[in-house]
């Protein structure tokens, strides 16, 4: 098994380092790491250090020795999923599984048919929960670069994002649409791929028109219709496999 990942604000250089606070408590009291065991310190932005435990103290302090410091470049193509707000806790489920799969960025989208609405303090708390979920899922899946979770976007803002992409697609349930399947689309080897996942009620004709004008055509994933909380994960996995990022 690969070494567990713990997040730090800044990855230290060679030498001893004290891991304390919530991450130290998790390492000592939950993971129960002991002298000689390996771990990784990462900043979630691609920089990380391979370490070995020197000593554990109390319930929340771990002294580690930093052996090597690395920096992972951003992978290409960069995959962004625009996720319409799902009902209940399915938003966190979508963020968690997309992060584990390998998505690079997630954009919450206030689609016209979304039942859930992010407004005021409730919206800020929901966004914070998405970002926390991405961070924890990134650690759990041993990633050194966690996905960015953007601020909530409107349809107009999403259209502007799609217009800048090297490939943009709206995941759609219409299996007879002329654009065909995402599995056979002409995907770029580099640059950016942006995938739009609609809400439970689907993407409205007006939204499809706005996204089409920005260069994003509808594509189907398969014969079955996936829920909004799983479509982004399936599409991300498909793109990762087809572009060689999973090779």
TrEMBL record:
InterPro entries: Alpha/beta_knot_MTases, PUA-like_sf, RsmE, RsmE_MTase_dom, RsmE_PUA-like, tRNA_m1G_MTases_N. It is found in: Cytoplasm. This is Ribosomal RNA small subunit methyltransferase E. GO terms for molecular function: methyltransferase activity. The keyword rRNA processing applies. It is an enzyme of class 2 (transferase). The keyword Methyltransferase applies. Belongs to the RNA methyltransferase RsmE family.
């Amino acid at each position: 098994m690969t070494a567990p990942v713990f997040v730090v604000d800044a990855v230290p250089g060679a030498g001893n380092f004290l891991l304390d606070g919530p991450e130290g408590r998790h390492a000592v009291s939950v993971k129960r790491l002991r002298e000689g065991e390996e771990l990784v310190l990462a900043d979630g932005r691609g920089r990380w250090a391979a370490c070995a435990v020197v000593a554990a103290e109390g319930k929340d302090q771990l002294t580690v020795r930093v052996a090597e410091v690395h920096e992972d470049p951003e992978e290409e193509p960069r995959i962004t999923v625009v996720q319409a707000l799902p009902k209940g806790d399915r938003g966190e489920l979508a963020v968690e599984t997309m992060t584990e799969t390998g998505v690079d960025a997630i954009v919450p989208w206030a689609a016209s048919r979304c039942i859930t609405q992010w407004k005021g303090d409730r919206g800020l708390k929901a966004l914070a929960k998405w970002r926390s979920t991405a961070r924890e899922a990134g650690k759990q899946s041993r990633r050194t670069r966690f996905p960015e979770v953007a601020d909530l976007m409107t349809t107009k803002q999403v259209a502007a994002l799609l217009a800048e992409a090297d490939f943009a697609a709206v995941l759609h349930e219409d299996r007879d649409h002329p654009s065909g399947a995402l599995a056979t689309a002409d995907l770029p080897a580099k640059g950016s791929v942006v995938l739009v996942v609609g809400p439970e009620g689907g993407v409205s004709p007006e939204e499809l028109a706005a996204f089409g004008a920005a260069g994003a055509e509808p594509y189907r994933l398969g014969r079955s219709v996936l829920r909004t909380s799983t479509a982004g994960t399936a599409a991300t996995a498909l793109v990762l496999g087809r572009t060689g990022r999973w090779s």
